[in-house]
Write a structure and sequence with these properties.
The two termini are 29 Å apart. It is built from 9 helices and 7 strands; from the N terminus they run βαβαβαβαβααβαααβ. The chain is an alpha/beta fold and 253 residues long.
Amino acid sequence: MDLGLKGQRVLVTGGTKSIGRAIVECFLAEGTAVGFCARDTALVKEREAAWKAKGGDVAGTALDVTDAAALKAWMEGYAAKGGVDHVVANVSALGTDDTAEGWRRAIEIDLVSTVNTLHIARALLEKNASGGTITVIGTVSLVEVAGPTQPYRSVKAALVPLVKSLAIDLAAKGIRVNMVSPGTILEDGNTWGQQRDANTERYQRMLARNPMGRMGRPDEIADAVVYLASRRASFVSGANFIADGALTARVQY
């Protein structure tokens, strides 16, 4: 299926690991140019070199998305070299503790930096005559509670009405805004990978909950993100697209 993305330009925050890395790879496979950022300078350079060696039109930048000025300079700087068609806000603080500091960190990274990213993305895409897309990475934790209390699900949930509101505001300008909410994602070295290797009770419990009998892969989430950015999803906007292997029992109206 031709997704019609070849030659377009994409920005991805948090593009070096797991779902973010898979998103960059999936866009590159569709023939787009990708600018990505992450905090780890060495890993940014490593990923950029590997993707360029495979022929990818890719540019990595090391920055902390909570630095609003640096975030703005990166996004606007990339756009100045040829515009931007799609923006993916992927950065997350993940499992911070249920403490005052944990809440502050989650709010700063998952909420404030994402809001800043979306504001900048809106301004950039409004200059694009053909519109574009914004995709926010959410979580199934915002629709169904499982596991210990933590800031992650509540802070992510705060982004859902923002996605819907922006989708309505920007529809007439040809800009679509969606959220993709992954379920449990497993790969070597990530949280679930570590728990699998340790054979924890929590891993076994969460694995047993999934009707597919397995956890998801980062590329399965990336495929959903890239599809929603494509012309094949041209009438989809304001959606919270849950990709969880039927893990959540909630009926979405």
